[in-house]
Amino acid sequence: MPDAAESRENDTATAAVASLPSQTDSVTTVTHIAVLDDEVDITQLLAGYLHSHGFRVSQLHSGRALMDLMRADPPELVLLDLGLPGEDGFVIARQLREHFHCGLVIVTGRGDPVDKVVGLEIGADDYVTKPFDLRELVARIKAVLRRLTPPAPPPAVLAVAPPAERTRLRFAGWELDTAARRLLAPDGKEVVLTTGEFDLLAVFARHPGRVLSRDFLLENTRGREAAPFDRTVDVLVGRLRKKLGTDAGEQSFIKSVRGAGYLFVPDVELV
């Protein structure tokens, strides 16, 4: 039986959710999202708003509960708060990236640029600081989900489809399959990439030998322009260089061009 304080807290969260505009989106009707935050009122608020947009939501309050959910009923995307009592949110984010495939959006009150860089380096697809606009958060969630799962062509198109488009890009022994969204190393082993890393490498591979500005790269991977001091692209480039087994020196596939952006060096073959 809930006590009076808990009832008031639930009533407050319910009222806050009820006051929000209710909208639905057929694209998100079956998408499962996990919300991990130690504050019950925040998880209830987010769950109510996300439900109104057609998402299925699991509310969690500890890293252990999230890991149990990932094994039993894995969500397509996780909203992760970093400030969990007695737990390191960055460690949880790293565990998600190492052991599971899902979208990851960090939602936290820690707005220090260093925290943001660390979160992106670990593999977060986006980083949102509190307080935030709920509509913007949903827009960011949908953007991550679109990058995770490219839309399938409609059945009518499949019936009369022309020969399949070539979606594999080969460079320096590597193979990037843009349809299957996977990267194969020269030895045939798959290299796991985050959504942001894959999208950035795909843009580079489609524009070899051209200097690409940070604005161009962000627009073609995140749908936005670079804000002042935005290091998202730089962080992703650094992670790609490590996974491709190259550094920033002469052997790097991705060259830095001072004051201009980045250049993808290898010749690329479409197969």
In short:
The chain is of the alpha/beta class and 271 residues long. It has helices at 4-18, 40-52, 63-72, 89-99, 113-122, 134-148, 155-159, 195-206, 214-221, 232-243; strands spanning 32-36, 56-60, 77-80, 103-108, 126-129, 168-171, 174-177, 182-184, 190-191, 211-212, 254-257, 261-264, 269-270.
Defining key terms:
271 residues, alpha/beta, Rossmann fold, Arc Repressor Mutant, subunit A, 2 domains, five-stranded parallel sheet, five-stranded antiparallel sheet, disordered N terminus
Descriptive overview:
With 271 residues, this protein is an alpha/beta fold. The protein has 2 domains: 4-148, 3-Layer(aba) Sandwich (Rossmann fold); 164-270, Arc Repressor Mutant, subunit A (Orthogonal Bundle), CATH 1.10.10.10. It is built from 10 helices and 13 strands. It has helices spanning 4-18, 40-52, 63-72, 89-99, 113-122, 134-148, 155-159, 195-206, 214-221, 232-243; strands at 32-36, 56-60, 77-80, 103-108, 126-129, 168-171, 174-177, 182-184, 190-191, 211-212, 254-257, 261-264, 269-270. The strands form 3 sheets. It has a 5-stranded parallel sheet, with helices on both faces. Strands 9-8-7-6-13 form a 5-stranded antiparallel sheet, with helices on one face. A 3-stranded antiparallel sheet has the order 10-12-11. Helix 1 runs parallel beside helix 2 (40-52), helix 8 (195-206) packs across helix 9 (214-221) and helix 8 crosses helix 10 (232-243). The radius of gyration is 20 Å and the shape is globular. Its main location: cytoplasm. Residues 166-266 bind DNA. Residues 166-266 form the OmpR/PhoB-type domain. It is found in: Cytoplasm.
